[in-house]
């Protein structure tokens, strides 16, 4: 991993909105059950959940609706969600309780640092990155999370055959994602082109709906880690 990647160029801006009473109550009551406290020690991914199963890591789950829906629809799989914005964390915890989910765990720190320091190598079956900030201005493009070193980091944490699923509603970022992924020797596209049809298991998010209303397309990229 290069020194450039080690420097903390964050791909997000921490804008903490006000918590609703329900979100605050969920943080107080359900974080001790489903939250993973900050720290530096590596996680025992297989033993975070009540049962061992395939593990999906989602980076930046937003308001948590999409992740909760996926977990509800796939009770035979386990999910770890990372989100830095407290209202989103609170909303997901509320949904976990409302839907009586047992297959979701939540983290609230910088995803790159979590993956680098706490996720063991070859421990994940799937990584999801849906609608990350595209950093539209050219001078900010370096803050896009999808860069060569980040993709190498994801590859190191996926099992052979594991899937990296990306989605965006910003075409220049889709092109950037495709360029970076196609240049990686660790991955190959699961479609004939860099872009794949939207998988049925990915729910439509509010960000996706907003983009469609603005006339944006939506691009899904599914890449499989090579042996």
Q: Care to describe what's here?
A:
By secondary structure, the protein is an alpha/beta fold. 35% of the residues lie in helices and 19% in strands. It has eight helices and seven strands, in the order H-H-E-H-E-H-E-H-E-H-E-H-E-H-E. The chain has helices at 3-6, 21-34, 65-73, 86-99, 111-118, 148-157, 171-183, 206-213; strands at 55-59, 78-82, 104-107, 124-130, 158-168, 187-189, 219-225. It has a seven-stranded mixed β-sheet with strand order 3-2-1-4-5-7-6, sandwiched between helices. Helix 2 (21-34) crosses helix 4 (86-99). The longest helix is centred in the N-terminal third of the chain and has 14 residues, at 21-34. The radius of gyration is 17 Å and the shape is globular. The two termini are 20 Å apart.
Short overview:
35% of the residues lie in helices and 19% in strands. It contains 8 helices and 7 strands; from the N terminus they run ααβαβαβαβαβαβαβ.
Distance between the termini: 20 Å
What spatial order of strands do you see in the largest sheet?
3-2-1-4-5-7-6
What's the mean pLDDT score? 91
Poorly predicted ranges (pLDDT <50, ≥5 residues)? 1-7
Helix content: 25-40%
Overall geometry comes to globular
What is the subunit organization of this protein? single chain
Structural class: alpha/beta
Specify the number of helices.
8
Q: Main beta sheet, described?
A: 7 strands, mixed
Beta strands, count: 7
Q: What sequence of helices (H) and strands (E) makes up the elements?
A: HHEHEHEHEHEHEHE
Give Rg in angstroms.
17 Å
Strand content: 15-25%
């Amino acid at each position: 991993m290069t020194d450039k990647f080690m420097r903390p160029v964050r791909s997000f801006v921490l804008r903490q909105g006000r918590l609703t009473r329900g979100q605050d109550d969920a943080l107080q009551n359900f974080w001790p059950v489903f939250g993973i406290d900050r720290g530096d020690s590596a996680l025992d991914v297989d033993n975070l959940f009540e049962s061992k199963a395939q593990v999906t890591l989602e980076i930046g789950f937003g308001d948590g609706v999409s992740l909760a829906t996926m977990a509800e629809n796939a009770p035979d799989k386990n999910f770890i969600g990372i989100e830095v914005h407290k209202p989103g964390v609170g909303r997901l915890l509320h949904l976990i309780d409302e839907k009586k989910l047992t297959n979701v765990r939540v983290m609230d720190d910088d995803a790159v640092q979590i993956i680098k320091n706490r996720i063991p190598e070859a421990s994940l079956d799937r990584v999801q990155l849906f609608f990350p900030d595209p950093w539209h201005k050219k001078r900010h493009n370096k803050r896009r999370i999808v860069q060569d070193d980040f993709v190498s980091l994801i590859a190191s944490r996926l099992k052979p055959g594991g899937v990296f699923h990306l989605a965006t509603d910003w075409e220049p970022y889709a092109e950037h994602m495709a360029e970076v992924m196609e240049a990686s020797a660790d991955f190959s596209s699961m479609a004939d082109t860099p872009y794949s049809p939207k998988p049925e298991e990915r729910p439509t998010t509010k960000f996706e709906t907003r983009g469609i209303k603005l006339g944006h397309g939506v691009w899904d990229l599914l890449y499989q880690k090579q042996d």
